[in-house]
Write a structure and sequence with these properties.
Length: 186
């Protein structure tokens, strides 16, 4: 599913089970187009640190997905999956608001593709159902189809019996220090 940056609104689809973990309760209904930037680091499978052209840094939390934490089974693989796609170039995003930790919740596009959808399709993240409300029907259908296909073919985390990250976070503290620095990959 390729689209131009203006069509980036297509990104969002958080877990069909309706859990949101750290995501905002009321994401902005009208996203703001943000300046493209280079990814400085992949914090984990659903969080990026981006350097804007003016030198400012911004932490982006992918809208629509919840990936395993870096200290959780499947977490390092999700981070590597994202790093392989974002570290070599620039990303574009639509800003949807902030989460309770002050991170910018954003739909991210890399090489014309929705990064959240790529994660779900590869079996590296859960889409979250309650955040699909208000999105175009074709976007909802794409996330749903990707999630069902990943589970049916047992790719990525679905090769086993993964613990959802929102459940894992109830008994574990997400660790820091597992970020992937993009400068180390260039």
């Amino acid at each position: 599913m390729r689209s131009g940056f203006p069509g980036l609104l297509v990104l969002v689809a958080l877990v069909w089970l309706g859990f949101g973990g750290d995501l905002p309760a009321n994401p902005s209904s009208s996203p703001t187009v943000a300046a493209p930037g280079a990814v400085e680091r992949v914090v984990d499978g659903d969080t990026l640190r981006v350097v804007l052209d003016n030198g400012d840094m911004r932490t982006l939390r992918l809208k629509g997905v919840d990936a395993p934490e870096s200290g959780q089974q499947g977490g390092p693989e999700a981070g590597e999956f994202v790093a392989a796609r974002v570290c070599a170039g620039r990303v574009a995003w639509l800003l949807h608001g902030e989460d309770r930790y002050g991170r910018s919740v954003a739909s991210v596009e890399v090489d014309g593709e929705d990064l959240g959808l790529l994660l779900v399709r590869a079996g590296m993240a859960w889409p979250i159902r309650r955040y699909l409300e208000g999105l175009p029907a074709d976007v909802v259908a794409a996330y749903d189809a990707a999630w069902r296909q990943a589970r049916a073919t047992r790719v990525g985390i679905w090769a086993g019996d993964p613990e959802p990250p929102w459940q894992w976070r109830r008994t574990h503290r997400p660790s820091s220090g597992h970020a992937i620095r993009c400068a180390d990959r260039r």
